[in-house]
Amino acid sequence: MLINALVAFVHFLAVFGIVAALAYQWLSFGPTPSLQEARRLAQVDRIYGLSAVTLLLAGFARAYHFEKGWAFYSANPFFHLKLGLFVAIGLLSIIPTVTFIRWGAELKAGRAPQVSAAQHRRVRLSLNLQLGLLLPLSLCASLMAKGMG
Predict the structure, then answer these.
(1) What are the extents of the domains in the chain?
(2) pTM for the predicted model, two decimal places
(3) Nearest to 22 by CA among 118, 144, 103, 135
(4) Average pLDDT of the residues of the chain
(5) What would the CATH number be for the domain defined by 2-145?
(6) How far is the C-alpha of 41 from the C-alpha of 27, rounded, in Å?
(7) How many helices (H) and strands (E) does the chain have?
(8) Which of 27, 35, 40, 136 places its Cα 20 to 30 Å from the Cα of 111?
(9) Nearest Cα to 127, choosing from 38, 35, 53, 19?
(10) CA 148 and chain centroid, separation
(11) Which pLDDT score is estimated for 63?
């Protein structure tokens, strides 16, 4: 029983990590980031990735070994939709991650990165879409948890 609660705790902690990291990126990413802002964005992006991996591992542990069991989840359309939305968010997150990784040389040299207008639009669109997709993902999670579908 305790292990079930601990895995659920880790799962929820990872969700909060993703939401916090994404919100931070959305609020902080601008067309002319300072060196400190750029370093922080790159660091928060790593937290985002770690949270996403943790969420997947804890989520599948819960689905396979705890809660309602794999048979329930694998037959639930809201589970599949939730997973699909999670994958879509993950794919969209590649855009800012690649941008922040490309800043590496400039950041190591102590220079603020140069962000083109096109880069800014792409990253901003990605962040907006990711945030927007969190809403239907959350709805799917609630519907699934209540046995809908």
Answers:
(1) 2-145
(2) 0.91
(3) 135
(4) 95
(5) 1.20.120
(6) 10
(7) 6, 0
(8) 27
(9) 19
(10) 25
(11) 86
Q: Is the pLDDT of residue 149 over 80?
A: no
Judge contact between 78 and 144, C-beta under 8 A. yes
Q: pLDDT by residue (tens digit) across 6-42? A: 999 999 999 999 999 999 999 999 999 999 999 999 9
Q: Which sign does the torsion angle of CA 108, 112, 118, 123 carry?
A: positive
On the CB side of 47, CA atoms within 13 Å amount to: 18
Is 107:35 a contact under the CB 8 Å cutoff? yes
Least Cα distance to 19 among 142, 145, 132, 148 occurs for 132
Percent of the chain with pLDDT over 70: 100
The closest alpha carbon to 67, from 142, 138, 2, 145, belongs to 145
The length of the chain is 149
